[in-house]
Amino acid sequence: MTASTEHLSVEDIERIGAELEAIRDEVMSTLGEADAQYIRRVIRSQRGFEIAGRILLLGALFPPAFVAGAASLGIAKILENMEIGHNVLHGQWDWMRDPEIHSTTWEWDHVSTASSWQQTHNYLHHTYTNVHGKDRDIGYNVLRIDPDQPWHPRYLFQTVTNLGLALIFEYGIAAFDLELDDVANGKATWRDKMPEIKVMARKAGKQALKDYVVFPALSGPSFVPALLGGLLANTMRNVWSHAVIFCGHFPVEVETFDEERLENESQAEWYVRQMLGSANIEGSPLLHLMTGNLSHQIEHHLFPDMPSNRYRTIAPKVRDLCRRYGLPYHAGPMYKQYGGVLWKIARLSFPGGHETIARRQRKALPGGRLAAATLRRLRDRTVPAAA
């Protein structure tokens, strides 16, 4: 139990779980050709942007071609990582039985290998979302992002650390996926890690060769500006994906949990933890597409293998569910979410920052305990028991 769930009984939580299962079953039972056409259309568009970007950068000596080429390639990389790669690797499109669009065969345009990312993200993060000691995504081992994290002098510089992480985000994630902190903690040796390091190094080498050698070389006299165009496109992708992921996981209101929370945790309790530990970004359909629909982070954490194009259809139902049961539904425009995250990182860089953040978190509860109790009485009169 946390302050946001103490007004709920075990039966309440099980009803929440039953309603969420019903939402999932309804969607998954109606997947069909329209959904398949959606992901194939996105893949075609992404490849079109990439081809256009590569062609334009052949003439990168000309400023308009450089700007248009870098922008087009950057959009292609964002689409590939966010709406395609991330979601395909979650198994969202495995139901199509298409060997080219499948979680076991897709290799994305990223330094991290698909298999290593699936281990740290699909398994560790999505299973143990926001649980201290289990979910390594809390601060990515370099940031103090939660009030419960002990302060250390190195955090004084974490605003700069965070900026550097945003610029090289794919490399930061690749290093994070290697779990090199296991060596420092004595859980593994460098010899144990060397096979993974070699695989990651080969992937990183191929990425660098493609973006910074092969394609720039094809441009002949435009080699240097074409290389810079590829670097700019990757930086665009890194900064954007960093912003989207941080908005979905680290706003002030998002909750974290102790490891004891996992003891005998039911599926319904897992659902509740996902809702409390995630946040959404409000915006246009284009924004949702460019975030890989991770703007619906709450719905994604509830149903990580549900096709991303369906999140917008279930979001109102999940929001209403939270309202009826007196649970917070964290959502806001991107400027508000990201601004809050950056403020939180800056505030937690100092020893006493956790007290300020804790007060903000308490104020974010949905109307306080009295309002929650009132909602419960209303719910008991109006909400039918789950079938």
UniProtKB/TrEMBL annotation:
It holds the Pfam family FA_desaturase. Residues 65-331 form the Fatty acid desaturase domain. The keyword Transmembrane helix applies. InterPro entries: FA_desaturase_dom (IPR005804), Fatty_acid_desaturase (IPR012171). Keywords: Membrane, Transmembrane, Transmembrane helix. It comes from the Bacteria. The chain crosses the membrane at residues 55-76. The keyword Oxidoreductase does not apply. PANTHER family: DELTA(5) FATTY ACID DESATURASE C-RELATED, FATTY ACID DESATURASE 2. This is Fatty acid desaturase family protein. It comes from Actinomycetospora atypica.
